[in-house]
Specification:
The structure is a homodimer.
Chain A lengths: L3 E8 L10 H16 L8 E5 L3 H5 L4 H9 L5 E5 L4 H14 L5 E8 L6 H8 L15 H16 L3 H15 L13 H6 L2 E3 L2 E2 L9 E9 H4 L6 E10 L14 H14 L8 E3 L5 H10 L8 H7 L15 H4 L4 H17 L12 E8 L4 E8 L4
Parallel strand pairs in A: 2-3, 2-4, 9-10
Antiparallel strand pairs in A: 1-7, 1-8, 4-7, 5-6, 8-11, 10-11
Helix pairs in contact in A: 1-3, 4-14, 7-11, 7-12
């Protein structure tokens, strides 16, 4: 099958960007990706923008039109949404557009402006990723859902509170090495344990923050991409889903959609999970990273706590996870997250990751979750076309 | 090029459906389309759902997951949005998925639950289709934007207030012949002129209503579709865009994106606009239908008023437009509208349109607008594969 290459990436600084509106974030990341690729905006055939909450948080829908307007191009341009996996489904639509023969070069964006609303509104808006009728309406928050998952997992697999905290400690350490990250401060296990309780057992430092940010990619079909210097190749992509509501699942301690999506992506890439050198997973809460590395098959079921203690998931460890700082410390601007994960994989595979560079990074994987595992996208990328 | 066929359609009743929530609407239209096609939900490879405001109006995002959950299928399923053109861009993604080779059969939905919120919230939410920073923030409503367009057009082309009212009169007449329509009452020119002023010169009866509804289609690749009884073929599809804000346009009295999208769709279909037997246009306001038939090239520029007076756009006239009742009288559940337009074309081309059946309907066209013409999608369908 014909391969598709990533020929340019761009991202804004992630953080509380009071001076930047939604349009500014989208413009900056788009233009950075175009500049990185060294193409003209006139070469772009189609645009896909992943975003979840712009209608709620900025009163602005119709981001497809905005994305095209910014570049002054008249090409098909739409917004796609799958809650926190919005960025990744935008990427998948970009890949599909090229496979369909309707586009040679596609711009894919993810963006979210979150800090213009009060926390209560942000929390309510984000709960739209779950099941409003069964969960949100009855008072559940997203933190509450993941707290129940955490409690069940800790009970079943004897994960200690300290082991769980180590996810955030590691991700904050990584973020200090990533210039675009929301947070640049290291934290300790004690700090995680002693920060405010958000939804027991999760504390403030177990939770990803409310962040503004945008990220963009330029995709090109094989014939075009191979003319560029060090394109990164999309080797496989899988999407799977599950019930919107948590109570309808058979188990609280695993997310089957992760396993299904990973199987589909790895099968398409024709490789095993053991061939992955660098992984970005969806750590919206610390417990989510614990489950992700097990559901992906990176570590045996129930071993994640021990792996954290051994430090194997640091960027210089045997199984590097979230070298950018993850959602926890790089920040989680919802629509941008899936694209920022790919941005990090591209940086690592190009050897441009600076102080957090992973040695011999040839194949990377991204894992992006919508809701509590209702939509999961897994993508695999490589330096070689495969 | 390989053609794609529509093998099933379904739609809910349109109206103020107090007893039906978002999930009910989505479930009903999906199941009706599946039943109409006579397939099993297990045969569906991918799902695309067009929706604009579920996050704002129902606190529920992540409709892709909901659509798949309803059918208990584990396939890629996402929401797409382009304001009031959301349904049509969902259709375009469905076509693209089949062209890419990644899907053989695709379910495409459009849905909107609008009547659970107060009018003020609905109006504000809908304004997200325009430019929030330049228009909405400064107090403009969508009715206000189209009122300025109407004023400019009436001035330039000497369109009378009575001629403008005839659009609504005709569409209400059509709706009385359509069982699913929101309104089943005929209205007169005097009633339009004497109804409450919403944004001068537009009165209440110039404006499409706040409506609940859902519509669905089943698409199949040629090899599969031709085994079904009377599939309707997608002959061409075009999407074009323009600035989000109205003030940035060169003219208020035409929508160039309509012309561009139509050119793209007709070129793909290899036919001229004179070959179209039945047309559904985006009459969110009466003036929008006036401009649409000119921008599409169905009538000469500036002639629309005269054409209305002559009654040529009635379903039994020479240029039948909006035989379903249009957005004005069939109703305008935002995300559903683009799919409902195709539902009507399929009904007409199959000869199943009952009392509103257009004689010898072989080729149909849909025209769906996002914002004030910031995104326009035009699709062409035929009884023959072309």
């Amino acid at each position: 099958m014909e391969k598709i290459g990533i020929i340019g990436v761009g991202a804004t600084k992630f953080g509380e960007l009071w001076k930047h509106g939604l349009r500014d974030l989208l413009a900056e990341s788009q233009l950075k990706a175009i500049e990185d690729a060294g193409i003209s905006e006139r070469q772009i055939d189609m645009i896909f923008t992943g975003n979840m909450c712009s209608s709620d948080f900025s009163g602005q829908s119709h981001l497809g039109s905005m994305a095209a307007e910014i570049l002054n191009v008249n090409v098909p341009s739409i917004k796609v949404e799958a809650a926190c996996a919005s960025g990744s489904v935008a990427l998948r639509q970009g890949l599909q557009a090229i496979k369909s023969g309707e586009a040679d070069i596609v711009l894919v964006n993810g963006v979210e402006k979150m800090t213009d609303v009060q926390t209560r509104q942000a929390t309510t808006g984000l709960m739209g990723a779950g099941d409003e009728e069964w969960e949100g309406f009855n008072g559940l928050t997203f933190c509450g859902l993941y707290a129940m998952i955490a409690r069940a997992y800790m009970h079943k697999y004897k994960l200690t509170r300290e082991q769980l905290a180590m996810v955030s400690v590691k991700n904050h350490k990584h973020a200090t090495l990533n210039p675009i990250a929301h947070f640049h401060n290291e934290i300790t296990v004690d700090q995680v344990l002693n920060s405010s309780i958000i939804a027991d057992p999760l504390t403030l430092l177990d939770c990803s923050p409310i962040t503004d940010g945008g990220a963009s990619l330029i995709l090109a079909k094989e014939e075009i991409a191979k003319k560029f210097e060090s394109p990164i190749w999309a080797l496989g992509s899988g999407q799977a889903n599950d019930t919107l509501s948590l109570h309808a699942r058979k188990s609280l301690t695993e997310i089957p959609a992760t396993t299904h999506a990973a199987q589909r992506a790895l099968m398409q890439a024709k490789i095993g999970i053991d061939k992955i050198d660098v992984t970005e997973v969806h750590d919206c809460f610390s417990i989510a990273e614990v489950m992700a590395i097990e559901d992906l098959g990176l570590v045996p079921r129930g071993d994640a706590g021990k792996i954290m203690e051994e430090g194997l998931t640091y960027f210089d460890g045997k199984i590097p996870v979230n070298s950018c700082g993850g959602l926890k410390a790089c920040g989680h601007p919802i629509g941008a997250t899936g694209i920022k994960q790919v941005w990090e994989i591209v940086k690592q595979l190009r050897g441009e990751a600076g102080k957090r560079q992973i040695h011999n990074a040839n194949i990377g994987l991204t894992h992006n979750v919508g809701g509590t595992g209702s939509t999961v996208v897994v993508n695999v990328f490589g330096r070689e076309r495969g």
